[in-house]
Task: inverse folding
């Protein structure tokens, strides 16, 4: 009996050594290079706490953001559009309810706050300041030009996955760095089973497109 126990103990320790050795060899050979490649694919959201929560930033895949419109979700998406555009990304902003005017108001208010933190970013005051001075207008145009030219707004009642893919393919020919933001109205709380199935299929298709074309996609 004692001999059998000893044999089992030796075998168990032997397996431990093999497992430890295997992980060590991985650390010695491939770990550093693979980890560097992994984090090279990540892009900062511009929000340090969110980057930490996401393990370094966002990767080429689909991220679903659920929330009330015109509250937290819309400003966040406009912030992401501005941040990615300022870092050289072509941003395709798909929406079925928002307007270019609303999106630009949010970007303008945030941009003004960054420049003049001691003043309230009250939009009517900003518009009045720009419209009353040609020099101020030119200053804003110069600073916003590289950002706004990288944001393309697509308004459609229904945002089709095939249309998204066509747009990505087209813009990828001009810029390898492409990000997609899809801002849709909330779905009804009471959905039928078919509607829920359709929604899951839609999200799967969108995620597949994001991975295939290596784009950052937030819905």
Result:
């Amino acid at each position: 009996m004692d001999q059998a126990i000893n044999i089992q103990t030796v075998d168990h320790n032997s397996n431990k050594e093999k497992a430890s050795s295997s992980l060590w060899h991985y650390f010695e050979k491939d770990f550093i290079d693979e980890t560097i490649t992994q984090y090279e694919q990540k892009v900062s959201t511009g929000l340090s706490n969110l980057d930490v929560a996401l393990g370094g930033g966002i990767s080429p895949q689909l991220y679903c953001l659920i929330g009330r419109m015109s509250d937290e979700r819309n400003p966040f998406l406009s912030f992401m559009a501005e941040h990615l555009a300022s870092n050289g990304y072509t941003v395709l902003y798909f929406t079925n309810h928002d307007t270019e005017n609303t999106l630009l108001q949010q970007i303008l208010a945030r941009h003004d706050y960054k420049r003049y933190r001691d003043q309230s970013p009250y939009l009517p005051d900003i518009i009045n300041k720009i419209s009353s001075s040609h020099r101020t207008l030119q200053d804003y145009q110069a600073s916003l030009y590289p950002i706004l030219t990288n944001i393309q707004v697509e308004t459609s009642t229904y945002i089709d996955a095939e249309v998204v893919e066509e747009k990505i393919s087209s813009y990828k020919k001009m810029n390898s760095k492409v990000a997609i933001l899809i801002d849709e109205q909330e779905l009804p709380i009471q959905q039928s089973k078919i509607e829920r199935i359709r929604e899951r299929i839609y999200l799967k298709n969108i995620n597949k497109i994001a991975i295939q074309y290596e784009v950052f996609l937030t819905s």
Remarks:
- Confidence is low (pLDDT under 50) at residues 1-10, 16-20.
- The longest strand covers residues 90-95.
- Strands lie at 62-63, 90-95, 151-155, 178-183, 216-218.
- The CA atoms of residues 27 and 33 lie 10 Å apart.
